[in-house]
Fold this protein.
Amino acid sequence: MKRFLVSGGILAFSAFVLFPLTVLCAPRAEMLNPVFDAGEIPQGKDLVHEFLLKNAGDEPLVFKARPC
Amino acid sequence: MKISTGSYTNEILKNIRVETNDPEADLVTFTLKAQVVEILKVTPRLVNFGKIPQNDTSVREIVCENKGEGPVRILSIEAKPPTLLSLREQEPFVLNPGQSRKIAVKLSSGSSEGYVHGYVRFTTDLEFLPEKVVRVRADVKKQQDTGQ
C-alpha cells in the first residue's frame, strides 16, 4: 500500500509539476489560417499569399520548409 | 508563397510542409487552393505529328477558343523554326466570347532523321497571359520505317 502511494505520488508530481514545465519551456508553432482558398483566378496571374506561422511558446522556434 | 498559373488549366492544390522544433507539432502544413480560369483555351497543348517520312509534309490544326466574357485579341502568331513549321494564316484576329478559330500548322520534315521540335506562339492582349505557346514535335524516319 505504501509503495503504491509512493508511486502515485511520483506520478502526480510528474503530471502536475514536470509536464507543464516542459510544455511551457518550449517553442509552439501556431498557424493562423493554414488553408487559403484563392477562389477563381485567371490563367497567367500570379497567385501570391503569405501564411503566418507564429511562435506562441517561450523558446525560439526553428523551422524550415520541406518540399512536397 | 508565389505560384505562376500560366501552365495550369484547372485546380491548383499546393501544400507547404514546415518542419519545426515544436515538440507537439514537428510538422505543420499550409495549404493553398485556387481554381484557374482559362480565358484563352488553345488545344492541343502539344502537337505531335508522330512518325513522318523524310522530305514530307503534314498539317495539323490548333484550335483557339475564347472562354472568357470579353473579346480576346490575338496580336500575332508565329511558328518556329521556319525551316520546320509554317502557318496558313498569321494575321491578327479577334475572338469574341465563345468564339473559336482553327489555325493550320504545316510541318516540313526535311532530310534529317530523328526527333524535331518547334513551337507556335500566340501573343494576346490578355493582361495576365501575354503569350501562349504550343509545342510541336515529330519523329522523322526513313521512308520505309514509317509504315507508309
About this structure: The mean pLDDT of chain B is 93. The two ends of chain B are 51 Å apart (CA to CA). Chain B touches chain A at residues 1-6, 8-9, 12, 14-25, 27-40, 126-130 (CB under 8 Å).
